[in-house]
């Protein structure tokens, strides 16, 4: 399995990771190596095997749909890189 | 070096109860040792002043007869556990200045038991690595040295390498680790200490910075099996805040150390003898088998036929979960932010500046295997093979009680001695990853030295929620091995 530069660019965009043009060749080589390594799974017969999503042999617990936490705005905002009037501040998103 | 730093937790607990020394004296001796060990770079953040105050509080509780199970015992906390008011970085630049406003359940449990935290220990960035070299705050050095080349600086393993080095260097009596594919067991082996990754669900993941949520599990690292049992008892327990935390009672792990393994069947998987396994590791494994046989257990050859597919399975499942978990680092609510002209540009620039190369690589792989058109071919396929790997163990445990294997294919390697191919680095975890994929308890204990004087570990694997048998067998092996070698740093 070989990944070309355009594919790496697409993945990086999906992952919201800025990648410089001069890094693309190296990354494409590295990621291709890894995909070649994992390719060996195709030789395993998995017909009729259910995908394993969790090793925990339990169903997810439920609880009443009530508020159990909150009233801690300042704690939530404490690590925000930028905040204003009790809100997170982001770059302008509406043109 | 104070003799207090050579005590085990079990010994220190007795000494404190008998008033031979105070918790303040015990903690001060370890702080002194930690200051001497600063060149190893095992701690990212020291909390010595808070530790002294905690130790004084421990002395008061000891005097009143209200001591917890780990009262006054100095420990290290892997910098992946959120600690209220104390910077928690995951050894990533993206969390360089993150101060959690809450405490993880495991660290809260340990504090409730009276443990005294000396600081936050280093790890590979976001626990992704086997050498501690991917930390954004510099490599950690293993306190052990090669006989043939004492000048070479060796890795402590990873990702819990800071914890392993801190324990081996006698700066703390134990430390927390987390293990996703071997991150407790491999560094324990490299540093000549003992560590157990308990069953998935045994310890709460709440407040532990996530890497791969279906695999991540916290566990103790210490210098003896008994100390691991003491510490695991304090860490474990059901937590409603983690929906995968198992609602099962925590047994008295120490009580499981009966010293008797007669009649137990010990599985020896034939697939763990790959071509090229070093003679040393092979001989160590054979020695372990012989010791258990002499103690009255019966070795049984077993087959875990899908073993060779564990590594490629892991390197689809773990990056997929990593890419999803690490999507939260957006430069918006916490963590590093680099401004951009648009919201998307801010995300992309913040993440590029904040993540190191191994983390970036895994996010990209994970994003790829989860993307439209590739999901079934890679991610769903890996989840199916994961089930086959887990079923191999289920079948084996119908005939055996515990499984014995090497922990890692080699002893600790040198900082910067590895090649650039990430897959080569991943081979370090070839013996530990299958256990992680199956969610089973796995313990590594030191079982001997390499020809070059470096510790080598053996791994014991148990049934789900049967840490007791694993600890019982490990305790018997520990006594039979009589590992008493001390790292060069401690010898002085």
Summarize the SSE layout with pairings:
The complex is a heterodimer of chains A (95) and B (492).
Chain A: H1 5-14, H2 24-38, H3 73-77, E1 83-84, E2 87-88
Antiparallel strand pairs in A: 1-2
Chain B: H1 9-17, H2 23-36, E1 43-46, H3 48-63, E2 74-78, H4 105-112, E3 116-121, H5 161-168, E4 174-179, H6 185-190, E5 194-197, E6 217-222, H7 225-235, E7 265-269, H8 279-294, E8 298-302, H9 310-325, H10 343-354, H11 357-370, H12 375-396, E9 402-406, H13 422-426, H14 433-438, E10 442-449, E11 455-462, H15 467-481, H16 488-491
Helix pairs in contact in B: 2-3, 7-15, 9-11, 9-12
Rg of chain A, alpha carbons: 22 Å
Secondary-structure-derived class of chain A: mainly alpha
Give the rounded overall mean pLDDT of chain B: 96
Q: Tell me, briefly, the overall form of chain B.
A: globular
Listing every helix as H and every strand as E from the N terminus to the C terminus, the arrangement of chain A reads HHHEE
How many E strands of chain B?
A: 11
Total helical segments of chain B: 16
Give me the oligomer status.
heterodimer
Major sheet description of chain B: 11 strands, mixed
Terminus-to-terminus distance of chain B: 9 Å
Helix and strand content put the structural class of chain B at alpha/beta
CATH superfamily of the domain at 3-263 in chain B: Amidase signature (AS) domain
What is the CATH level 1 assignment of the domain at 3-263 in chain B? Alpha Beta
User: What percent of residues of chain A are in strands?
Assistant: under 5%
N to C succession of SSEs of chain B: HHEHEHEHEHEEHEHEHHHHEHHEEHH
InterPro entries (chain A): Asp/Glu-ADT_sf_sub_c, GatC
Pfam families (chain A): GatC (PF02686)
Protein name (chain A): Glutamyl-tRNA(Gln) amidotransferase subunit C
GO molecular function, one term (chain A): ligase activity
